[in-house]
Amino acid sequence: MKKPAAKQKPKLTVTMWLSLDGFIAGPGGELDWIMGDDEMSDYEINLISQADTLLLGRKTYQEFYAYWSEKGPPKNGWEKIFAKKINDLHKVAISKTLEKAEWDDSEIVSGVATEKIKKLKDESKKGILIYGSVSIVQQLGNLGLIDEYQLLVHPVLLSQGRKLFEDVNKTGLKLVSSKAFKSGVMVLTYQPTKT
After folding, report:
1. How far is CA 132 from CA 2, 7, 194, in A?
2. Model pTM?
3. CA 158 to chain centre
4. Percent helix / strand / coil, the chain, rounded to 5
5. Nearest residue to 12 via CA among 152, 87, 117
6. Low-confidence residues of the chain: pLDDT under 70
7. For residues 37 and 59, what is the distance between their CA atoms, to the nearest angstrom?
């Protein structure tokens, strides 16, 4: 008789749009190079459906709250579905300056604390997702707390801007899956190798 497969622990997953040369935004924070289509929308809805917690830095938390919360602008199509899913998640903002968590079902954590992140991972039933929040991603990566990177690599060279992997420790990554969209965007999923 076959043993049932061991249940996988929920993962802390980073998802990030990235230019082919490793930038997440242009020099002035421009995101006008990001390609959106039905495939990308389906990917985003599927990804967020696999999480129960959203972890964000202060700036991303405030931007997401302004756009995706019920106080944001009206949504149609895939955005309406995505907004419902994101509002149903538990939101955690990492910030030393935010005083109040205005978004429903959200909390503020003062700084990246290893024990708090481990506790969030232990309490999660489905997984934790990080959008944007580059400085938080860099800190969590350096602490070995990220389980997976899902990078949406766009076929564009920015040559300058904000890099995703700046001020990070040397880390081995293993490619676990890849998928090409018709737009030329590649979703590359990496997991850190244990050394």
Report:
1. 42, 28, 24
2. 0.89
3. 21
4. 30, 30, 45
5. 117
6. 1-7, 195
7. 26
C-alpha triplet 152, 156, 161: angle, nearest 5°: 85
Strands (DSSP E) found in 20-166: 23-25, 53-57, 90-94, 106-109, 127-131, 148-154, 162-163
Angle formed by the axes of helices 77-88 and 58-68, nearest 10°: 130
List Cα–Cα distances, 120 to 10, 54, 105, 125, in angstroms: 10, 10, 14, 10
Contacts (Cβ under 8 Å, ≥6 apart) of 34: 17, 154
**pLDDT at residue 110, as a whole number:** 87
The candidate with the shortest Cα–Cα distance to 163, out of 8, 24, 10, is: 24
The CA-atom distances, in angstroms, between 165 and each of 40, 136, 139, 151, 175 are 23, 11, 11, 12, 17
| Residue 85, C-beta contacts closer than 8 angstroms, at least 6 positions apart | 45, 48, 49
CA separation for the pair 110, 114 (Å, rounded): 12
User: Any idea what DSSP says for residue 29?
Assistant: -
